[in-house]
Amino acid sequence: MERRVLTLDEAALRRRTSIKWQLHDSDVLPLWVAEMDVAPAPAVVEEMARIAREGDFGYPVTGPYTEEVAALYDEWGAQVTPARARPVADVMAGVRAGLMAITGPDDPVYITVPVYPPFHAAVHEIGRRLVPVPLTSTGRLDPAALDAAFAEHGRGALLLANPHNPTGTVPTRGELSHVAVTAERHGVRIVSDEIHAPLVLPGAGFTPLLSLPEAQSGVTVFSAAKGWNLAGAKSGVIFGGSEASDAIRALPPGLEFSTSHLGVRLHTAALRGGRDWLADLVHDLDANRTLLAQLLTEHLPEIVWQPVEATYLAWLDCRRLELGSDPAVHFRDVARVALTPGPPFGAGGGFARLNFATSPALLTEAIERMARSIPARRE
Ligand SMILES: Cc1ncc(COP(=O)(O)O)c(C=O)c1O
What atom in ligand 1 is closest to the CA of residue 311? Predict the structure, then answer.
């Protein structure tokens, strides 16, 4: 199937100066950090050119960004009222601020493992107690395990990635509601990181936490950074439910001053004029999801992978290959393919995360290299 935006070749990508293409030697194919090998959205390119041409590099006016985020959430069925929304430097700054606002020192913060490693670090950084709770074996939220953990450790906060990184699952409305009701019963409030929400692929539907009446004590953090590949132009928005005014009031007064004008402008342009581009991207990711499943079946049948419902991140169970607790080391050193190591996600021994937001040619080359690196296949 023809790709529309995941079309860049290796020579063009190697000219990039961001970390994905710079960290490793030039013979390594980088399928690790969550940056996409995607051609940029024309609306973003035009806004960037206008900013540079006009020397528009001052301090931000953040209202238009919040309004565009509110419009998107309105389409998704959740209300973002301006009085309950605040701009933040980036999603992780919003996550830390949200957790600090709704918990006290040493309170438990529950995370559902495996999960994005900075979630673990953020909880430690703000002086809260990390309580990892496993997802189910299919990478989904486990209400029974959460109920048991809440009962044992008590009031605090539950930090969710909705959709989930690294398993690429999207909680259904029923699952999210079940978890929200359970959390509420134990005095646990939810912080929902929804940075991957624009990347829900055909077959699944996104439920914003704050579209649930039973989750209104919760807080959401959103950014256009992942959906439109704008990690280098940082910005985000934090907003609370109708029963979270206290949390929004408790945010540090200077929070919004750390957001960047460039980030705010580019994110706003993406949300306003980048919807067709996003549809093309989702089309290409859907095609790559199918391609990856085929490539694994053909070349690396020992790897177990459940095709994702969202994101471009594949959580590969490599345990049957017996490459040790961190297979990414083998694939980097022997196959010359960089994946993200599994262990820092928690419950990730024997796993590695592969980023499939690249061209079909590079994805195919990577899987073929990985297959050739397995000793039994080399002769
Ligand atoms: C779940 C999740 N949250 C947050 C981030 C980082 O967002 P930011 O750079 O805006 O802090 C990522 C990046 O991959 C992510 O996957």
Answer: 16
